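tool=predict chain=A
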Amino acid sequence: MAVGRTELWFKQRTIEILNKLIKERGLGFDRAEVEQSIAVSKKRSLFFDGLIWKNRASQQAACELEYKLPDTDVADFDLVGNAAQKANAVGAPYFITWNVRDLILWKTFEQSVPLLERQCRWWRNIVDVADLEDLTEQHWRKIEEFLGDLLVELDALLNKKKRFERLPVDQFFVHKLASVVDTNYRAFADALRERALADGKYFEELRKWTQTHGWMGLLHTTAAETKMSAFHTLGRLAVFLLMNRIVFHGVVQAHHPQVGELDLGASKTGKEVERQLRSAFDAVLEIDFETVFACEVIDLISIPDGSVYRLTRFVEDLKAFDFHTLSYEVLGRVYESLIPAEERHSLGQYFTPTSVVDLINAFCIHSDTDMVLQTSCGAPSRSLG
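tool=predict ok
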C-alpha cells in the first residue's frame, strides 16, 4: 500500500494541478486552495475541501469543491445538498462533487429549484479506479488534461457568460443508476467469486447460466482459473438487476400505492437488506410481474455488508424521482452503458440507438394495425413497456 495516498493527498495534488493550469493558461481565476475553514458568521465556520477563487483578496469565490473517494456515489443527494449549502455560504456561483472517477459541476444559485431541476454537467469515468492506490502517472495525465478542460468550461461560464444547460432528468437518472453500479459492482464481484470458489456446484450452475445467455467462454472451467474481470462483468450485471427491480418496484408503487414505499433505513447488514427487499418484491408479485422478479442463479448471492449504506442511500434518493413521468427507456440506456464497450464486443452484445429504432418505425409503421417483427432481443428493461 502506497504511503500517504489519502483523500487529503488527492486533494492537494489536484489543487497543485489547478494552480499550475490557471497560471499557464491565463484563465480568469486567482488561485485554488485546499481544505479551507471560513467564518460565514460570528458564530459559524464552514470547512471546504477546496475552493477556486476568482479574487481571493475580495473573497470572490468561483467554485467550491467537494471531494469523495471512488466508493461514494457522486450524486448522493445528501452530499450534493451539503456542498450546495457551502457554496451558497461562501458565495460561489458553482460547486463540484467529485469521487475521482466521476465529477459533476453544479450551478449553485437557483432559489426554490429542486435538486433534480438544477443545472449541472456530469463527466463519467475520468479515470476508472476503485481506490486511490490504483492511480498511476498515466491516470494523473488524464486527470490533468480533464482539469484543463474543466477550468476552460468554468471560465466560459463565469467570465464569458456561456449558457449552462440543465442535464435532462432522464439522463441524470441514467447517470445516477450507472454511478450506483460503479460504486458497488466490485463488492458484488468479490462476493460472487468467493461463493464460486467455495461451492463448485454453484459455479457450474453459474457457468451454465452464462452460456445459456450467450456469454460463451466468459467463465473458465473452474472458478480458480476464471479471470477477475469476468467476475467484475457479472458483478455489474448483479447490481444492475438489483437496481432494475428496485426501480421497477418504484414504478409499480407509483401506480399501486397499496404496495407501499421501499425503505431500507433500519438495515445494517446485507442479510437485513435482503429480507426487506424480498418483502417489498413479494408485495409486487401479488399484483403480477413475475418475469421481472423471477430468481436466477446470479441472484443467489448475499448482498455484501459493504454495500448496505450505499444501497440504502440509493433507495432514499430514488424517492425524489417521479415515476409517473420518467421514461421506461432510461433503464435500457443504463443497461447499454452497464458493461464497457470492449467487454460488450467480446460478449457479442450490441445495442440499437432509440433514434435508429424510431427511424425504422417511421418507414415501417403507417397505421395502428401494422405489425412489425423484431428478430433481435432488447435489454431486460424493455419488459417494463
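The radius of gyration is 23 Å. Residues 96 and 105 are 5 Å apart (CA to CA).
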